[in-house]
């Protein structure tokens, strides 16, 4: 348990159809995070949700949405995440992002 450390989790809420230039926004965010040397990023697709518009997006077969919720999670040191925020702000449009302090537990590495 000696590998505990504090980090910042950046969680970004967008729609599946959100774009940055010619590519999906979630893809552009992950690539920019990698380019910035951040520790890691994960994209999660939600089966249901709603945002500022109040419109419910769902994957139910009878009400199939083409804009399901997407959450992009990026984790790194507070300093690295803070340095990435201007890039994020320029990319997310009407998306929403949250920051939280997390404790990182690293597994055993061979």
Rg calculated over all Cα atoms: 16 Å
The number of distinct structural domains comes to: 1
Tally of extended strands? 8
DSSP summary: helix tally: 2
- As for the CATH topology, it is Alpha-Beta Plaits
Molecular structure report:
The model has no long low-confidence stretch (mean pLDDT 87). The protein has one domain (4-104): 2-Layer Sandwich (Alpha-Beta Plaits). The protein is globular and about 45 Å long. Strands 4-7-1-8 form a four-stranded antiparallel beta sheet. The chain has two helices and eight strands, in the order E-E-E-H-E-E-E-E-H-E. With 110 residues, it is of the alpha+beta class.
Give a summary of the structure in a few sentences:
The chain is an alpha+beta fold and 110 residues long.
Give a quick set of tags describing it.
alpha+beta; 110 residues; 2 helices; Alpha-Beta Plaits; 4-stranded antiparallel sheet
Q: What is the secondary structure topology, with strand pairs?
A:
Elements (H helix, E strand, L loop, with lengths): L3 E12 L3 E2 L2 E2 H11 L4 E6 L2 E3 L5 E3 L10 E8 L1 H14 L4 E10 L5
Antiparallel strand pairs: 1-7, 1-8, 2-3, 4-7, 5-6
InterPro entries: N-reg_PII-like_a/b, N-reg_PII/ATP_PRibTrfase_C, UPF0166
Pfam families: DUF190
Family: Belongs to the UPF0166 family.
């Amino acid at each position: 348990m000696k590998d505990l450390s504090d980090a910042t989790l950046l969680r970004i809420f967008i729609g599946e159809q959100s774009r940055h230039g010619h590519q999906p926004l979630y893809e552009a965010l992950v690539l920019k995070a990698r380019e910035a040397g951040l520790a890691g990023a994960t994209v999660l697709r939600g089966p249901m949700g709603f945002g500022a518009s109040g419109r419910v997006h769902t994957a139910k077969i009878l009400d199939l949405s083409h804009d399901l919720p997407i959450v992009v999670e990026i984790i790194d040191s507070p300093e690295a995440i803070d340095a990435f925020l201007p890039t994020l702000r320029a990319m997310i449009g009407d998306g929403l992002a949250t920051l939280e302090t997390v404790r990182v537990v690293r597994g055993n590495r061979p």
